[in-house]
Design a protein that fits this description.
alpha+beta, 2 domains, 9 helices
């Protein structure tokens, strides 16, 4: 059977290394924009946060602007709080304009009255490190997987988010701002890339075949699918699947462990899974769900999890890969005691839709920040409150791109720069958890 690996080069070639919900191609990063205004509201949200400014023009007219920030989960992990953007604060924003919606921008850098500067991907404060010494084993001798876990943050090498490659933070911080190392590629849609310069940047990014070979039934299932619209479950603030959501946007996840079960709480969209350790077979009368039904067994120190019972859905919206109710996933969780890391590998098979196997891996580290649950409000498709002139902006983006390759990076488990970091530790344990 043909095996389809989700390593760096396979997925980067197919999808591009990117992760932005509203869609970076929606913004013209080849054009500089600067506005100064007074904060009216800040909305710390997933998938993206928004800063609303009242900007006074030369004619004295006040216009409400909205500027997109990263999601609340990664903002908090970078040391940001809503209190930093208190209403009434005067801020200068530099970044890029939205291609389609007026008075909308991509926030690259925020400058405060005291001249403090905060870049989009800047790390202004590090959370306290997670405890260096975790219990290695439970009383029953099994590895202790319980606790809060998060993947290493991924950032553009340009802290402003205007140019460069999208890499694990421990790699990006060793490079010059905006650097694109040999073997990597610039984030599609960033300054000077083919996508950013295309006549139709949206089509330049999205018009591509499925990332995986599909059966005739699979091709039929994905025909007409628009991943840049609410066809994509994430645009409906719904769970995508158990593989993608574990490391999407490096949210903080939580594992609760008992002798007969593990409960996995996903920071993305609040997905909850139960892995039954006291069952040998799946029930015959399963009700299909996004999480499916999982049974686990220990092979030495490796937890092997077998999951079936999925409702049909999307494996990768960006890669135009559907899955049917016949999808069968086998995951292997192993604890790296030396690095304090929890690694997962997986194989997904779907004889109805796939030609071959979907494989991948990811790694999470102890998180200093607690699990906060998965709240989501996608304002990319909603009009904010009416501005001071009484006019509300357009209510919809008409199904414009929301995520650019996040599934690829999530599936690759942060291995997009594996060629760079294969022989390197990912910094200190505190760095990896940030």
């Amino acid at each position: 059977m043909r095996r389809l690996a989700c390593g760096a080069f396979v997925w980067l070639a197919a999808l591009g290394a990117a992760s932005a919900h509203h869609g970076l191609a929606n913004f013209d990063l080849n054009t500089d924009l600067a506005i100064t205004g007074v904060v009216a509201e800040v909305a710390f949200l997933n998938p993206h946060s928004w800063l609303y400014l009242d900007v006074t023009g030369e004619d004295g007219r006040v216009t409400r602007w909205q500027c997109e920030l990263r999601g609340a989960s990664v903002l908090r992990r970078s040391g940001r709080t809503p209190e930093m953007f208190a209403p009434g604060t005067r801020i200068t924003i530099t970044g890029a304009p939205d291609r389609f919606q007026p008075n909308t921008c991509y926030l690259g850098t925020a400058v405060f009255p005291d001249e403090t500067r905060i870049d989009r991907y800047g790390q202004i404060a590090r959370p306290s490190p997670a405890p260096a010494e975790r219990p290695r084993r439970l009383a029953n001798g099994r590895p202790d997987l319980a606790g809060n876990w998060a993947g290493e943050q991924r950032v553009l090498t340009d802290p402003r988010g205007i140019s460069g490659a999208f890499l694990p933070i421990s790699v990006a911080e060793t490079l010059e701002p905006g650097a694109v190392p040999d073997g990597a590629q610039a984030f599609p849609g960033t300054r000077g890339t083919a996508v950013s310069l295309a006549e139709d940047p949206i089509a330049a990014y999205w018009d591509r075949p499925s990332a995986l070979p599909l059966t005739a039934a699979g091709a039929e299932a994905i025909e007409g699918f628009d991943g840049a619209s609410p066809d994509n479950p994430r645009l409906r603030c719904e769970t995508t699947n158990i593989l993608f959501d574990w490391t999407f946007e490096t949210d903080v996840n939580r594992i609760d462990q008992q002798d007969d079960r593990l409960t996995l709480l996903y920071g993305a969209m609040g997905l909850e899974r139960t892995i039954h350790l006291d069952l040998d077979e799946h029930p015959a009368d399963l009700a299909p769900s996004r999480a499916g039904h999982s049974i686990g067994r220990w092979e030495g120190d490796v937890l092997v999890v077998d999951t079936v019972g999925f409702e049909p859905g999307i494996l990768s919206a960006d890669g135009r890969v559907p899955h049917s109710g016949q999808m069968h996933v086998v995951e292997r969780f192993s604890l790296d005691f030396e690095m304090g890391a929890l690694r997962r590998t997986w194989v997904a098979r779907d004889p109805l839709y796939f030609q071959g196997e979907f494989t991948g891996a990811d790694t999470v580290y102890p998180s200093a920040l607690p699990y906060q649950g998965g709240s989501c409000e996608d304002r990319s498709y909603k009009a904010p409150d009416s501005g001071p002139d009484g006019d509300a902006p357009p209510a919809s983006r008409g199904g414009l791109p929301w995520t650019l390759g996040a599934a690829a990076l999530a599936a690759a488990g942060g291995l997009a720069a594996a060629w760079l970091v294969r022989s390197r530790r990912f910094g200190s344990r505190a760095d990896r958890a940030r």
